Amino acid sequence: MKNRIPRIYVDKNLKINEKIILNSSNTHYLIQVLRMNIQNKLEIFNNTNYIFLSKIIEIKKKIATILILEQEKKNIESPLCIHLGLVISKNEKMNFAIQKSVELGVDAITPIFSERCNINKNKKNILKKIIYWKNIIVSACQQCQRNIIPRINNVEDINIWCEKSNTNEIKVILDPQSTMNINQLPKNVNFIRLLVGCEGGFSSSEIKQAIKHKFIPVKLGPRILRTETAAIAAVTALQIKFGDLLN
């Protein structure tokens, strides 16, 4: 299949020679934004390790229909599974951290409430944010060629999230006061639970509670990083050491 053709996400099983009616959002993107027309080709991904070469065969009443032409297996997922616990920060910072973390290969993101998280905790407001963040994740996958959509979980309290663990998982919390860095983590790691704070960082009690639940405090260097920078730097460093970045 050719690279550099438009990509869109379709949330359904696909097969060759199948006709798919696109939703209004995808249709608008292809027809109004990219100015595509009948017979133009595009690439579809659907949260599997396959991509599907397709072409537009009909545009009617602002709804496009495509035909699936070919499929190709394409797995570019990192061997390192990172579950990012990201304390909720202000809109643009949170959006940016989510977008770039997805591009760098995280598998899952859980938004976190912490002591210094100054965010409206109204359920309706949080639900809107989750939906918005899901769209950011899909858009990031569309851009960076990932075919598997990282999941975004419901918001959790920091203590509840820290209590959880999976087999063979190491747990890391960013702490600028730590004397340990990422290069000192155990070797041959495949699963990491990474906790990143908001603008005010973590309280001393939160650090102690995380350590109680077997989190390893690490620092990213001598400088204090903004929350969105810290998330990106940490995921990058972990992917270089344990994953597929630079490989």
TrEMBL record:
Q: What GO CC annotations are associated with the protein?
A: cytoplasm
Q: One Pfam family for this entry, by name?
A: PUA_4
Q: Where in the cell is it found?
A: Cytoplasm
Q: What is this protein called?
A: Ribosomal RNA small subunit methyltransferase E
Its job: Specifically methylates the N3 position of the uracil ring of uridine 1498 (m3U1498) in 16S rRNA. Acts on the fully assembled 30S ribosomal subunit.
- Alphabetized UniProt keyword annotations: Cytoplasm, Methyltransferase, rRNA processing, S-adenosyl-L-methionine, Transferase
Q: Does the keyword field hold rRNA processing?
A: yes
Gene Ontology biological process = rRNA base methylation
Q: Sorted alphabetically, which NCBIfam families does this protein's record hold?
A: PRK11713.1-5 (NF008692), RsmE family RNA methyltransferase (TIGR00046)
The reaction(s) annotated as catalysed by this protein in its Swiss-Prot or TrEMBL entry are: uridine(1498) in 16S rRNA + S-adenosyl-L-methionine = N(3)-methyluridine(1498) in 16S rRNA + S-adenosyl-L-homocysteine + H(+)
> Which organism does this record belong to?
Buchnera aphidicola (Aphis fabae)
* Major localization class: cytoplasm
Q: Which residues form the Ribosomal RNA small subunit methyltransferase E methyltransferase domain?
A: 77-239
Protein family according to the UniProt entry: Belongs to the RNA methyltransferase RsmE family.
GO MF, one term, reads:
rRNA (uridine-N3-)-methyltransferase activity
Q: Which SUPFAM superfamilies match?
A: alpha/beta knot, PUA domain-like
Lineage here is: Bacteria, Pseudomonadati, Pseudomonadota, Gammaproteobacteria, Enterobacterales
Record's InterPro entries?
Alpha/beta_knot_MTases, PUA-like_sf, RsmE, RsmE_MTase_dom, RsmE_PUA-like, tRNA_m1G_MTases_N
Q: Which residues form the Ribosomal RNA small subunit methyltransferase E PUA-like domain?
A: 24-68
Q: Does the keyword DNA-binding apply?
A: no
- EC number(s) stated in the UniProt entry for this protein: 2.1.1.193
